[in-house]
């Protein structure tokens, strides 16, 4: 069923539910984006960051819907995503849900189906897709600048985020890397294997190392934790012509070309490898990823071409997340 879009150029009446660590940033950005107006906010525990301004803080999603909104941003804890999103779908409200789409893949499928059946725009907030370094990496890979893609590796490490209470590091942080990897390669996951540790005394895992293979044959690995004093956000794509290295903390992208590996040693002549060649650090226009994400959502509501993360993609990412956790629990590689 096709989406019931808004007339292009008409101001989108936005509602926001969840005024916590992410919600407060969404409130600011929505107010800044041309063509959007924040007309209602809701949070059952109030406005602890003081972002509502002149708006009344409504107690629940029903109050948000009653305000006459066109679209909503859902930034409540993960376990509430399905309940809130289904209410918005039933009310005919276009919605972007912060990642992950829901607490489980089964729950996510119900959410995705509800928006599809209602003919509404449903999106998931994977803001890393709007990081300038990753956008440029994906564009250059698609243009053939890496040749055949062989491998994608990610490292996402740092101190524990106090905002998290209801999920572990896989659903909170590794979900970013799973989504961006499939997006960069333009290929879904075929199989995954994972190892996790519980070192902090919390119910959920706080470290994960995961490896896998995409359907196109690209091999991948992810190192993710929130118990490191060193903050790292790096994505490396390696192919037949060299490697792209994205520092997503700084929004920097570097290309390291393969060097000349010819050898005069007869005994080494059969070895086919590479050496480090020329390196280029690209000058990239840097825009706030969260703002780009909301602009993409607005454009999707107006029927413009827009790189939003579909709810179906959000479900696939959650299926991979669950496969990693199952692999860690059972010791077996999981096929998707």
From TrEMBL:
The keyword NAD applies. One of its GO terms (molecular function) is nucleotide binding. Pfam families: GFO_IDH_MocA, GFO_IDH_MocA_C3. InterPro entries: Gfo/Idh/MocA-like_OxRdtase_N, Gfo/Idh/MocA_Oxidoreductases, GFO_IDH_MocA-like_dom, NAD(P)-bd_dom_sf. Residues 12-126 form the Gfo/Idh/MocA-like oxidoreductase N-terminal domain. Residues 135-244 form the GFO/IDH/MocA-like oxidoreductase domain. Keywords: NAD. Signal peptide: none annotated. This is Dehydrogenase. It comes from Serinicoccus chungangensis.
């Amino acid at each position: 069923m096709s989406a019931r879009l808004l007339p292009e150029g008409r101001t989108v009446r936005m509602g926001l539910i969840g005024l916590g660590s992410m919600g407060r940033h969404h409130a600011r950005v929505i107010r800044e984006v041309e063509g959007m107006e924040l007309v209602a906010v809701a949070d059952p525990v109030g406005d602890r960051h003081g972002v509502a301004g002149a708006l009344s803080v409504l107690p629940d999603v029903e109050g948000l819907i009653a305000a006459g909104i066109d679209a909503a941003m859902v930034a409540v804890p993960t376990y509430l995503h399905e309940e809130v999103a289904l209410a918005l779908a039933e009310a005919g409200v276009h919605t972007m849900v912060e990642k992950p789409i829901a607490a489980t893949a089964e729950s996510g499928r119900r959410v995705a189906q509800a928006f599809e059946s209602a003919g509404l725009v449903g999106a998931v907030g994977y803001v890393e897709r709007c990081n300038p370094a990753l956008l440029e990496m994906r564009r250059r890979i698609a243009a053939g600048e890496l040749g055949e893609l062989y491998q994608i590796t990610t490292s996402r490490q740092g101190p524990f985020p106090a905002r998290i209470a209801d999920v572990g590091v896989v659903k909170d942080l590794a979900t970013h890397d799973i989504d961006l990897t499939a997006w960069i390669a333009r290929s879904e996951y075929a199989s995954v294997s994972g190892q996790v540790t519980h070192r902090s005394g919390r119910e959920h895992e706080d470290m994960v190392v995961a490896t896998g293979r995409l359907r196109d044959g690209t091999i991948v690995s992810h190192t993710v934790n929130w118990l490191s004093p060193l903050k790292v956000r790096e994505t490396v794509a390696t192919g037949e012509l060299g490697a792209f290295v994205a520092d997503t903390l700084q929004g920097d992208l570097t290309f390291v070309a393969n060097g000349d590996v010819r050898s005069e040693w007869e005994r080494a002549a059969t070895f086919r490898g590479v050496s480090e060649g020329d390196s280029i650090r690209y000058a990239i226009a840097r825009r706030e990823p969260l703002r780009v994400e909301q602009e993409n959502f607005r454009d999707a509501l107006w029927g413009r071409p827009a790189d939003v993360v579909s709810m179906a993609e959000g479900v696939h990412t959650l299926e991979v997340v669950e496969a990693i956790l199952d692999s860690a629990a059972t010791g077996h590689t999981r096929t998707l």
